Structure formats: structure tokens, C-alpha cells
């Protein structure tokens, strides 16, 4: 995977664990509930548009966005990487911007309740899947005793077989 092209499109370097996870697993879903939307080819352009749309949505409620999270066009410091089927989001908090391996995870519910995880995306996923990290948006039984992951291609093959071939 040519990360230089991806990062140039984004205008920012990505954390090394993000890139390693994306190379091994790509995007997908945990329990068909928690959807990982990683910036990987060939979907980068569409995901950048999704990122811009999400920041536009947040700009509609500036009083609901905690201090320190910049959503102003041209200086955004939140990069969405996952969401739930209920409209809750996970972001990378891109601070300090030039040191992506130090970025933390920020989450918000659809009702604009925010929380911070002082660790990387992969550390957050490890804590969530192991059941050691709870977020307000998580159903009581999530992730359960045997959490599973489906790639985007597997998910589409299960739900929309005609689209499954177009994800690679």
C-alpha cells in the first residue's frame, strides 16, 4: 500500500499502528455494529468526502464541541475512523499534528457526549474487544464473549453480494 499517496491526499501523516492495522485487516465491522472506515485505497477519495461531511455536521453545533477539538475548515484536528450503526463516532485527535504516533482517540455519541482515550487506535480497539473499555454508546452486551471482525468485502458479500467484488 502506498501510504505516501494516501497521506498526501489527506494532508497529514497517519499513525504507524493505523497503517499496520489497515494493511492487515483493512476496513470492516465488529459484530456488524462498530464500523471501521479506514483511509485505504481505493476508497480514500470517498472517505475524505465523508470526513469533510462529518466536520461540516459538527460545525452546525459548535457549542457542543469541547474546547481543543478544531473543526474549522482548513485547520481540523479530528479524523474520523469508525462509527456505529447508531451514529456514534470515533476520531483520531491529531495533536500534536506532526507526531501521529502520539495521537489519542476521541469518541462522541450521536447526542454529542464526548470522551477521550489516552492511547492509539489499536490500543483502543484492543481495550474495547477485550471488554476493558466501555463507552457511553456501547450496547450493554458489546462486544460480548466472542467478538468477531468482518472485512468490508465479507460484510458486503453477506448483505449485498453484487457489491462485494467492487470493494477490492
From TrEMBL:
Question: What Pfam families does UniProt report for this protein, alphabetically?
Answer: SMI1_KNR4
Tell me the classification of the organism that encodes this protein: Bacteria, Bacillati, Actinomycetota, Actinomycetes, Actinopolysporales
The entry's protein name is: Knr4/Smi1-like domain-containing protein
The Knr4/Smi1-like domain, residue ranges: 3-126
Amino acid at each position: 500500500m502506498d501510504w505516501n499517496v494516501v497521506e498526501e491526499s489527506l494532508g497529514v501523516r497517519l499513525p504507524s499502528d493505523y497503517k499496520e492495522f489497515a494493511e492487515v485487516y483493512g476496513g470492516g465491522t465488529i459484530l456488524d455494529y462498530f464500523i471501521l472506515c479506514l483511509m485505504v485505497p481505493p476508497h480514500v477519495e470517498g472517505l475524505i468526502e465523508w470526513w469533510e461531511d462529518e466536520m461540516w455536521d459538527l460545525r452546525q453545533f459548535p457549542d457542543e464541541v469541547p474546547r481543543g477539538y478544531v473543526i474549522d475548515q482548513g485547520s481540523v484536528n479530528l479524523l474520523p475512523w469508525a462509527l456505529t450503526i447508531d451514529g456514534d463516532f470515533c476520531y483520531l485527535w491529531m495533536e500534536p499534528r506532526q507526531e501521529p504516533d502520539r495521537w489519542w482517540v476521541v469518541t462522541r455519541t450521536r447526542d454529542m457526549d464526548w470522551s477521550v482515550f489516552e492511547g492509539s487506535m489499536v490500543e483502543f480497539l484492543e481495550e474495547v474487544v477485550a471488554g476493558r473499555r466501555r463507552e457511553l454508546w456501547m450496547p450493554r452486551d458489546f462486544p460480548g464473549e466472542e467478538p468477531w471482525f468482518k472485512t468490508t468485502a465479507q460484510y458486503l458479500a453477506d448483505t449485498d453480494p453484487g457489491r462485494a467484488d467492487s470493494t477490492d
